[in-house]
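ok so heres the complex, two chains, lmk if somethin looks off
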Amino acid sequence: MTSAVSIREVAPRDGLQNEAPIPTDAKIALIDALSGTGVGRIEAVSFVHPRAIPQMADADEVWAGMTRNPDVRYSALVPNTRGAERARRAGFREIEVVVSASDTHNRRNLNRSTADSLDDIAALIPLVHEAGATVEVIVATSFGCPFEGDVDPSDVASLVERVRADGADRIAFGDTTGMATPRRVRDLLAEVRPDLLHFHDTRGTGLANVLTALDLGITEFDASVGGIGGCPYAPGAAGNIATEELVHMLHDMGIATGIDLDKLITVAEMAEKVIGRTLASGVLRAGPRTRLV
Amino acid sequence: MTSAVSIREVAPRDGLQNEAPIPTDAKIALIDALSGTGVGRIEAVSFVHPRAIPQMADADEVWAGMTRNPDVRYSALVPNTRGAERARRAGFREIEVVVSASDTHNRRNLNRSTADSLDDIAALIPLVHEAGATVEVIVATSFGCPFEGDVDPSDVASLVERVRADGADRIAFGDTTGMATPRRVRDLLAEVRPDLLHFHDTRGTGLANVLTALDLGITEFDASVGGIGGCPYAPGAAGNIATEELVHMLHDMGIATGIDLDKLITVAEMAEKVIGRTLASGVLRAGPRTRLV
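and the predicted structre for the whole thing:
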């Protein structure tokens, strides 16, 4: 098994997008605090239409106001070429574009078909490359769709083949609504392998999925401090896997992340105050296993 | 990997013991509802001193009032010979006695040393056997102690050797405060193997631990419907792994449990109403992965 894992912290984007809006300065403080934990990558903002996702309407202000740590790689998520233009102009070097394996989910999320998104991505990639930035394609609903049910791994594989042919630099599989399980991770990765996995912990299998993926050689994972970000289709359900729970398990296994767990828990406490609700992270509640009574 | 797993439902005992007391008739209704889910084993009550654990003061009334399903094996937990006598008199055929691998935890939990508990267990086993019942020794704090920290696997192995020599029929390892991780499961099971594992999900690793244990050939697990039962040392932290989360993952892997997941979720909803707080079970909140929007 690998001796190191690279974690991308996604609370500022995927986390906050699924919470009630918080002030710009609170976002900046959260990102700056995360930048000091040792985490190597942060998904900072998304450039989406403010009517679609008002939580991200201040993306330019957040990016301009935060302190850029030279040891951290910051990325922005975009839904289409228009968003990619904004991310380029803002100076992002790593741009993620999302497309759903499920057509119904893509229409609900991006208001167009998966095929139309793929055409747009094909046009977007050279524009991003011209600016010297990279494109990661995040395949949402890779492990299942809340509207269509199971997604055939071969459909995901076809989509990956298409975007790779169009020049995508990296591929991530998103477990958008927590439908991944150890079995589904094995099934999909037997068919096609991503660079990075993005799991939610909607049904308790978050870290079991990570364990399965580690066993299959995956070494890059998304996670959200405090587990912030819920599931939009299941009120009250947990969101992304909590970064501190992931780090806690990995460090215990002797797998390095570069992250200071104590600092990270302090950021989770701060995030909980900002969000204003009790977060679902066990390591936030109980501390590391080595914390004695 | 195994094709079937045997789950012991522990909500009526380990779950309720760590919640505010509920009425006797609610306990009876919970056990009767669980008995109809297809689960093969239920830890129904414990015979402990009512001053120590007032939540279990009505153990005799619960056992007398519930409907015994002939397809379910019911067990009682006891802390000592006195409790075992009560369980015997009540007619239990399966008796669990608890002892902590950590001396400090044993003193806090049972008000005596681990060595004294072991002597008592040695005296208790023949009495239980005379009544035609079996004794399972549950080794609490097998994966760590909230007062002492890490527990050496060789200490657990010595304890197991002792109680097996004294006639224990079965051994369970209890992850009393959720200190188990995949790494700790591997470390301990490399040294000594139990018949059954009892995990908490205090730090998000509950199902990851199960996955690791399955990989090592373990086929019996405790779980608590709705994940009821908290961690006494970490207010607000999750308790036992939720039975419906365990069943959901196992069935998805093609591993049979005999349990009807839909019925089980209905019982979890009922348990949540009785307990009167939002339970930490993801499958209770979001439903199975196949539940569409």
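quick notes: Chain A has a mean pLDDT of 96. thats all i got rn
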